[in-house]
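Sequence only, no structure available. Ideas?
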Amino acid sequence: MLQKLKHFKELHPFTSLMLIAILVRIIAVVFVPGFGSNRELQHPTLFIGFLDKVKSWFGISDSQGMMLLSRSLYAMVSLFTVSMIYRICDLTSDKRSAWLLALIPAISCIMPSFGIIENASAFLALPLLLYGSNVILRQEVLRQNNLNENVHRTSFLIAGIMLGLGICFWYESAFIVLSILLILCVRRNFKGALLTFIGMTISIAFIWLLLIILNVDPLNYIRL
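Reply:
I predicted one. Tokens follow.
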């Protein structure tokens, strides 16, 4: 039996990793006692301003059903985080190393207050930041391999949009995004850096405008 599982893991490393992650999350969501899902949601970000407005519309309160729903949503978000960590590690190393490194968040990054990231804003922003970073890294790998650097140039725009949304979830991540832009400039990929910045600006401006339309002051959600 163990040999079959090992063989399956070697043939399908990503699938085996995600199956482990899903099993761990089912156990955590259903059987872990206590609320343990969104106690940090008061962290003031633009996304929280939008979420507060939606909750007021529907009269959502913290109940047992809401707890199960929020836990399930967090579990699905964390699956995407595991996936992105595997993809990034696979780009920079090999599948075995990627599997081992991604196994850490698979079993320890499940939901806020039950894992290694307790801040809900950071927890929700992480997959967006990882996705944007993965897109940029992939394009840089293609460029480094002397492929046509104009291929998928719009990928930097998409990456910027995702990174900008990450900032809206967790505004401290702006320092991470600025570091990514700086690295692109140091590598003389000025077009990629510019498109990434434009995409980031678009997504932040969209959320900002949406809050204004919803009669919510965005300045209330960018306090340090």
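The mean pLDDT is 81.
Hope that gets you unstuck.
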